[in-house]
Known about the structure:
By secondary structure, this protein is mainly β. The chain is built from three helices and 27 strands. It is elongated, with a radius of gyration of 27 Å.
Amino acid sequence: xxxxxxxxxxxxxxxxxxxxxxxxxxxxxxxxxxxxxxxxxxxxxxxxxxxxxxxxxxxxxxxxxxxxxxxxxxxxxxxxxxxxxxxxxxxxxxxxxxxxxxxxxxxxxxxxxxxxxxxxxxxxxxxxxxxxxxxxxxxxxxxxxxxxxxxxxxxxxxxxxxxxxxxxxxxxxxxxxxxxxxxxxxxxxxxxxxxxxxxxxxxxxxxxxxxxxxxxxxxxxxxxxxxxxxxxxxxxxxxxxxxxxxxxxxxxxxxxxxxxxxxxxxxxxxxxxxxxxxxxxxxxxxxxxxxxxxxxxxxxxxxxxxxxxxxxxxxxxxxxxxxxxxxxxxxxxxxxxxxxxxxxxxxxxxxxxxxxxxxxxxxxxxxxxxxxxxxxxxxxxxxxxxxxxx
Length: 390
């Protein structure tokens, strides 16, 4: 079973850095030496499904200006993995495949009168295909040094790759909202006869009549509570409102919600379990866009997350992995491995995909190809999490 949690690297990582660069240079004050110019000789890089390329740069340097040109070459040296295992007491580490590492401009020269070279660029690729149960390491070593000694502790940098949780950051919506007054691709959300709306949600407090997940007030809305509806119970509010006790959140617990609309009928899943089965929404299609003159900051009849009708109807909690598909997902797709936590941004029918892992700012990026970013009304906090919880 894949381990999504991240285990911190051994404190032995500090061992190889116990002699600081300054100390090393002072030790050899009268003996100019060459070294890889980096603050740390080991770096942990967290990898998860769908991870893109990772890029690092390194250059070589000397304490003093050189009197003649000096050169060296950076190479990916998997033969040094045994040395890493011994130094860092990580016997389980294996070499990162050489096919995952390329070095641009590996031959570096410190020109006469200077004390540093231009940087080399190291690119790590295909990381999303790695087995996240395994710790991988790629040693980048300084070789072929000419006419100068080197600082032994600064001739190799270890890049360590470990499996990360699928979700590490989420968006807090307490007293906040995010909306799209205009879609970049409005046709994706117009007259939808079939669609699926998904999200991971953690409701932390239930003290108000209504809390909102997403949708358009008065048209089709996923909200929690209502008159006569418990304030932890999901309601699909449309021309006909639908809810039942099986659609109840547990405060403080992450729940995956999938709402499937199929030609006027709504089906809802909680954590992959069907809790509402093809009940009429009272309308044959749904448009999640702006409605006439009803676009002001007070009523705001366009698509919102954590807002409907009034400012006090926000979600007191966090959300992640919010998606809108312009097709009906099957029960098998919803329950597919890791589907609650990540999907391919290029998946068929994915109209919008807000991972909500931005971590800063007020723009929530749309990871689908459609570019329908959302804007938060104000700054928020971005809690760190490790999902799925084990």
